[in-house]
Write a structure and sequence with these properties.
Belongs to the MoeA family. Helix content is about 20%, strand content about 30%. By secondary structure, the protein is of the alpha+beta class. The two termini are about 30 Å apart. Bound molecules: ligand LQZAQKY5 and molybdate ion.
Length: about 400
């Protein structure tokens, strides 16, 4: 099956293997949800405007509705026959008179221009207004359908709904939309050394960062996190959590317990159940595992915090985004702003920071440098056979 690079599987091969495992993760499933909950979701339907926008001809200014012919020569004094507020219904204009009108109120039938209040002088006692500036036909008139007409395309399928899309949908009266379903994700971090933030840090213990990080990564890429657990290195406890995870989720991410130690709870539990544990020719994120438990794919990521996140970015992110209808993350080519060296035989994914139009390494190489990774905004992708690069060389960068 998979060709191995020096006994290791290449990143591309492992990515293809994972993509196949995750192909069934609710891809193409769509759900109807209220617009109020649709922010950041990907539309699973294209939508046409069900009404004109604006729905009716209305005023762009607080002022006076007139017929342009009566204000062709100014100053001119007109009788004011009434006031139209936003929300009022239709009214009739009498040529040679004016109706006071507010922004958004319907233009009275027969009027064809608005004179802004600033260009007038009212005499309330006399019930008149003197117009000081001419207004051509159409002045400050917002025509029905001038934004969009009934039946015209409003949003294409695949649109990831931002506030501006919600505005357009709300404006045409849409209440519910079909969006791509969110894949359900369960996260299990493993390791007897882990304690949750909030607990005291006893000797030998560290705070669990992979659990929160993988959950956040899943959410950021369109998934719903339905379960977050932490297991110590006891296989029975882990097996119990795994049974729960596969019962509630479409895909399970674990971290830790996959390499060569004496307490590799994930590997020891999953390998006998057909799981595959191997080394991928990349750094960080070399040790990887995959399994299918009760029909649910399980991705077993290495425990080092940088390794776990880089593994997610390289293997899980593409599938989650596709399943939830989000566009693939676009890689960029950028010139290095520093020289760098890399080891041969493994694809290196260095933490980097965009720097103007270029990119520079951020943080060191160590897979434990979780604070350092927070200073990065991209991964710099160095091919396995590249060992040195100079300032100005183009590198592929993967936005985080
Ligand atoms: N003899 C060998 N040892 C190791 C190898 C190897 O090839 N031979 N590979 C190293 C590499 S590379 C990695 S990556 C790790 C992967 O190990 P595991 O997946 O078994 O992870 P752990 O041993 O459980 O943990 C590694 C490291 O990360 C810390 N960790 C684990 N989980 C969390 C978490 N949820 N939050 C924060 N930090 C976590 C853990 O304390 C360890 O320091 O193996 C190397 N060893
Ligand atoms: O490959 Mo490990 O994932 O570097 O630290």
């Amino acid at each position: 099956m998979s060709a191995m690079a020096g006994g290791k599987r290449s990143v591309e091969e492992h990515a293809a293997h994972v993509a196949k495992l995750l192909a069934a993760v609710r891809s193409g499933t769509r759900v109807r949800i209220p617009l109020s909950r649709a922010l950041h979701r990907a539309l699973a339907e294209s939508l046409d405007a069900p009404i004109d926008l604006p729905p009716f001809r209305n005023s762009q200014m607080d002022g006076y509705a007139v017929d342009s012919a009566s204000v062709a020569t100014v100053p001119v004094t007109l009788t004011v026959r009434g006031v139209l507020a936003a929300g009022d219904g239709r009214a009739e204009h009498e040529p040679g008179t004016a109706l006071k009108i507010m922004t958004g109120a319907p233009i009275p039938d027969g009027a064809d221009a608005i004179v802004p209040v600033e260009d007038t002088e009212a005499d309330k006692r006399a019930g008149t207004v003197t117009v000081h500036r001419t207004a051509p036909a159409g002045a400050y008139v917002r025509e029905a359908g001038s934004d969009i007409r009934t039946g015209d395309p409003l949003l294409p399928a695949g649109t990831v709904l931002a506030a501006r899309h919600i505005a357009a949908l709300a404006a045409v009266g849409v209440t519910d939309v079909f969006v791509h379903a969110r894949p359900r994700v369960a996260v299990i971090s493993t390791g007897s050394e882990l304690v949750p933030a909030g607990d005291a840090l006893a000797p030998g213990k560290i705070y669990n960062s992979n659990g929160p990080a993988l959950a956040a990564s899943a959410i950021a890429n369109g998934a719903d996190v339905v379960s977050i657990d932490h297991s110590d290195d006891d296989p029975d406890g882990f097996a119990e959590m795994l049974a729960h995870a596969v019962a509630v989720a479409d895909v399970v991410f674990t971290s830790g317990g996959v390499s060569r130690g004496d307490f590799e709870v994930v590997k020891d539990t999953l390998e006998p159940r057909g799981g595959e544990f191997l080394s991928v020719a990349m750094q960080p994120g070399g040790p990887q595992g995959t399994a299918v438990v009760d029909g649910i794919p399980v991705l077993a990521f290495p425990g080092n915090p940088v390794s776990a996140l880089v593994s997610f970015e390289m293997f899980a992110r593409p599938a989650l985004r596709e399943a939830s209808g989000l566009p693939a993350v676009e890689y960029e080519d950028r010139p290095l702003t520093r020289d760098l060296t890399s080891i041969s035989g493994k694809r290196q994914l260095l933490r980097g920071r965009r720097d103007g139009t270029g990119v520079a390494p951020a943080s060191g190489h160590g897979s434990h440098l979780v604070a350092g990774m927070a200073t990065a905004d991209v991964l710099i992708d160095i091919p396995a056979d590249t060992t040195s690069l100079k300032t100005g060389d183009l590198v592929k960068v993967i936005p985080l």
